[in-house]
Design brief:
- This protein is mostly helical.
- The chain folds into two domains: 248 residues, no CATH class; 128 residues, no CATH class.
- It has 19 helices and four strands.
- Strands 1-4 form a two-stranded antiparallel sheet. It has a two-stranded parallel sheet with strand order 2-3.
- Helix 2 crosses helix 3.
- The mean pLDDT is 90.
Length: 395
């Protein structure tokens, strides 16, 4: 009887509270790493190829710690990208509301995972071996049940609480925080058709998935950080696996030229600018905001309250193609009020439209680029002339 009570109190390992906390933190972190590296970057977006041993280790752990089926997770996530922020998105705050996604994101996921059409259309290329068919897909809840038994054996009655934290980690962090706050609140490096944001620049707690705006801008990139102050812990693990010969990175987000070069405009420049379009449009938006701030400091622009100034700068930073009707009206009013901004905005729209011409030949795009740069140089606007000169570095 004494032995049974002792077992229920501390389990086989007889660990103290801090050791149990460390174990819980480590195992939940492994779960996050498995989701971001295996399910998300490798399986859903094919951004890297994992060694079969590593891939199966992640599959086995996810079976234990989450009960999620690879094909279901991948299909739901791919559909999210295909219909992001629109009808058909399985878990968009814009469609369902932030409260529903934040607190009931797992229910939304399970509902979509039961849709046979979603699995058939978006689940291609996921594992379909004997273990997947007869164990991982057929018996998902036996895995989490096995982990519950292991936790109780190791730690006694407190093992149930440990298991509860392990089970809640993905529903709270991934289904709730990433799918909810990652499309609702945070900072944005790049504008785009989705509302995806970077929740924090330090992607540690959720394996780098905090950098959600970066991911939606470059969905096939194995690396989610793009600026010097951003940390993607998932990328650190990928680099370690790559150094050990256990992973092969297929794609990362393009990096702008490190140094400015005065190269002649050519077909290579057109290709380079197209590759780095997101970085360049971001830079143009920053240029507009800085021009507005310079005029504000010189007193050429009337006084602005802090809130009104922030709204104005947000309008200037955003790409016109992604503005709502209300924002377009506000921008039109702003340009009428500050006419010196109109040429900068007009040139921005023309520059953006250069890369929307799907049927244009490289020679036609080059001719349009040369014309745009010539007009930028003749504009007499220093910021615009510098931007046009910098484009030569992309050749």
């Amino acid at each position: 009887m004494v032995y049974i009570l002792q077992f229920l109190d501390s389990g086989i390992l007889q660990w103290g509270p801090w050791q149990i906390i460390a174990y819980t933190a480590l195992t939940t972190h492994i779960t996050i790493v498995a989701v971001t590296i295996y399910l998300h970057r490798s399986q859903a977006h094919l951004a890297l190829k994992l060694h079969p041993a590593v891939s199966h280790a992640f599959r086995f752990w996810l079976w234990l710690a989450t009960g999620m089926v690879t094909r279901e997770w991948v299909a739901v996530h791919r559909k999210h990208h295909a219909h992001c922020e629109k009808e058909g998105d399985p878990h968009s705050p814009g469609v369902f509301g932030i409260g529903q996604v934040l607190f009931k994101g797992t229910e939304l996921y399970r509902c979509e995972a039961r849709c046979a059409a979603t699995l058939q259309r978006y689940g291609a290329g996921t594992p379909d071996d004997w273990l997947e068919r007869h164990l991982y897909s057929r018996c998902p809840w036996q895995g989490v049940g096995l982990l519950l038994v292991a936790d109780v054996l190791m730690f006694g009655a407190i093992g149930v609480s440990v298991w509860g934290v392990q089970m809640l980690w993905i529903p709270v962090c991934a289904a709730g925080i990433v799918n909810g706050l990652g499309h609702f609140s945070g900072y944005r490096n790049f504008d785009g058709p989705t509302a995806a944001t970077n929740i924090l620049p330090l992607g540690i707690l959720i394996g780098g998935e905090e950098l959600h705006n970066n991911h939606h801008t470059f969905p096939t990139s194995a690396k989610l950080s793009v600026r010097w102050f951003e940390l993607d812990i998932g990328w650190c693990y990928i680099q370690l696996l790559q150094a050990l010969g256990l992973a092969h990175v297929r794609a990362v987000a393009p990096r702008p030229p490190a140094r400015r070069c005065d190269l002649p405009l050519s077909a290579r420049t057109v290709t380079g600018i197209g590759t780095h379009r997101n970085h360049l449009m971001r830079k143009y938006g920053i240029m507009l905001v800085r021009a507005f701030r310079d005029e504000l400091r010189r007193g050429a622009v009337g006084g602005y309250e802090a809130r009104s100034r922030a709204q104005t700068e947000r309008l200037l930073w955003r790409e016109p193609a992604y503005l709502s009707d209300a924002e377009r009206r506000a921008l039109t009013s702003l340009l009428k009020q500050h006419q010196w901004l109109a040429p900068l905005q007009r040139m921005r729209e023309e520059f953006s439209q250069l890369w929307e011409r799907k049927c244009a030949t490289p020679q036609e795009l080059l001719a349009d680029l040369v014309d745009w740069c010539d007009r930028a140089q003749r504009s007499g606007i220093p910021a615009l002339r510098n931007f046009a000169s910098e484009l030569r570095s992309y050749g």
